[in-house]
Amino acid sequence: MNERVLKRLEYDKVLENLAGYCCTPLGRERVFALRPSVSAEEIIKAQAETTEGRKLLRLEPLAPTGGYSDVRQQAERASHGAVLEPPDLLSVGHTLAACRQIKDFLTARLETYPLLGEIGARLDYYNTIEKNIFTAILPGAEVSDSASGALGAIRRKLARTRSSVKEQLEKLTRSAAFQKYLQDPIVTIREDRYVVPVKLEYRSQVRGIVHDLSSSGATVFIEPMAVIEANNEIRRLQAEEKEEIIKILRGLSGQVGAAAGSIRLSLDELGHLEFIMAKARYSRDLCAEEPLLGQNPAYFILKKARHPLLSGDVTPNDLVLGRSYNILVITGPNTGGKTVALKTAGLLILMAQSGLHIPAGETTELGIFEQVFADIGDEQSIEQNLSTFSSHLNNIIHILSNASPSSLVLIDELGAGTDPAEGAALAQATLERLKDTGARVMVTTHSSELKTFARGRPGVENASLEFDAVTLRPTYRLLTGKPGHSNAFEIALRLGMEQNIVERARDFLTKEQLEMADLIKDLERSRQEIEGEREEAGRLLNEAREARLRYEKMEEDLLSQRQSMIEKAREEAGRIVLKMQKEAEETIRAFREQMAGESAREREIAILEVRKKIQAIKPGNSRQAPVSQNQEQSPDWYTVGQEVFVPMFNMRGLITAPVEENSVQVQVGAVKLSLPLKELRPAEKETASAGQVHAGGTLIDKARAISSQLDLRGKRAEEALLEVDKYLDDAGLAGLARIFLIHGKGTGALRIAVQQYLKADPRVKSFRLGEHGEGGLGVTVVDLA
Q1: What are phi and psi of 17, to 5 degrees?
Q2: Cα(515)–Cα(569) distance, rounded to whole angstroms?
Q3: CB–CB of 689/613 below 8 Å?
Q4: What digits encode the pLDDT tens for the residues 548-561?
Q5: In the prediction, which pLDDT does 433 show?
Q6: Nearest CA-CA partner of 273 in 125, 121, 120
Q7: Dist. CA 693–CA 699, nearest whole Å
Q8: 221 partner at 20 to 30 Å CA-CA among 90, 158, 450, 453?
Q9: Among 782, 708, 778, 709, which Cα is nearest to 750's?
Q10: pTM over cut 0.70
């Protein structure tokens, strides 16, 4: 791609933004070397790498993809025998450690991130070098005592010698006879040797070597004769220490130099990784998507495309070229966004062919353009004696000479800068020639002749940037298939030109021009009104659909709730029957004890009678028993308030509504059901005797008598929880939505036990302490599921 074209389309600014996501020169160098590719294989792989980077950021945002530095110079110097300083070695160590961590991370996730995993696989381990560097170099870039045994021994001896010298001098400064000579009773250092500050007038009284004089001249720093040999020993040990450090650094540098070639290759892979992650972060911040690369060359379908360098509230547009038409002529007002539309199309093509995601919709599709030509902006040159028109003409001549079916041509203000009539004619001839070449062309213009040229001509289409006739402002929306109007008079008024001047300008237009302008305005106003009504209709349709879905959900919930209530009623009935059976068995046991004195035959006969009564209340008997047709009653027989028997539930119920279409509403326990008349039987009117239980009647009585409050005060936790368990069943059966458990304030133990129980109970939706007027801390308010 031509570098001037890249600059005209502001490709360089995209690269600058992309480079801002890199932390080292390793990635930045790759960014600034990036250029659009014409190889489908390269583009697909580059796009896949960016997508994989986005996936890594989304799934594992804290992944170790950094922590290294550009140590290529250090490795190169080490390979030529140079001794690296501790800070350089520390940078190398951190980079090798990051290399190891990244390799371990990516190779362990090769299936999830195959392309990044390949980069990780190409990285090398440098465990020995890394370990040796961090053993020898401390975090502050100082050589550690443990770097070698000799260095440790030298430093220990040096510390002892320094301590001995300081002790001798401190003893001297504490001497009463010597203190009068000193300016201060301290020990200090000059030229790496321990000295004491002596008053100038007593200089001859202290034997030793003078190393310095204070700025005031009142103090001389003297090394006493007694410590000269010890100070010499310190200097000798310091020299040994320095030699040993150089030896250690030389050894570490040699290890780095031996692996320099491999390190350079690993750094190249790290730069590639940094480049990919920079593209991924740029894509994320742009809310960009990977475009679909089509099979056919030289076309694009850009959905909701946005210019990547514009910030704030950017109006997205659909840009299509190369399918039903190859030339798009865009008209519209100044400052309406025509040039931005050209640059958006061109720049997004360049970005996509560079492996960058583009700020457009997910359904965006494009082919590959081998060449992109752009004539945008003013390139007049005094040095080359080129006017604006001349520079544009030179660009167009170059384009006509090189355009092909795989080219994208972008021309801003085609035919401008000269006589309007001649410019329009030249523009039409240029478009004809470009049409013959098969190139994909987008041009902007204010020329009415070009609007006419595009109308009805195969392969050429009009488009315009919308202008709001009410607010007199551009909306920046591209309308394909509709020629635009320049709206020069309206823009002049909006920018502050006097109205009488604008009105006078209208007088210079021909009658046909005025009629055409008014016609276009009317069409535009009608289109905007129709579009507004269509948007309103769409909004109402969406609201209707949402309401329908909401009501369907409510119906589904009601049916589910009804089924749940039926199941609860059945479970409650079963529990009551089981309880009665246990009570009956207990009655039999007591009865046997009472009958112990009777004859065996009389006892068995009495027991058999009791068992028959119990058998009558077992669940399922009525459901299994055959029902004769003569048991059914006519609809007139059933009345509101009448008690009936429901065989399918083996329970009694009350009729709560008149008969309608051979069905009637029956309350069975706490549940109201609509049942066919054939499912009902007359309830037998008999008094309950020993061992008989009417489960339906029990449930109805319970539903009527249950209270919304349960008083637990004075009970132990075990007793209270048993009562709570039973009460929750009763309250659910009665259809209560909210109940109040009164446990009192006291020590709070009972309240804690009750609330711990409620947390684990599926029958409880939520609970809270009572508010003011509900009992406060002494009451727990429970909402049932």
Answers
A1: -65, -40
A2: 80
A3: yes
A4: 888 888 888 888 88
A5: 92
A6: 120
A7: 11
A8: 158
A9: 778
A10: no
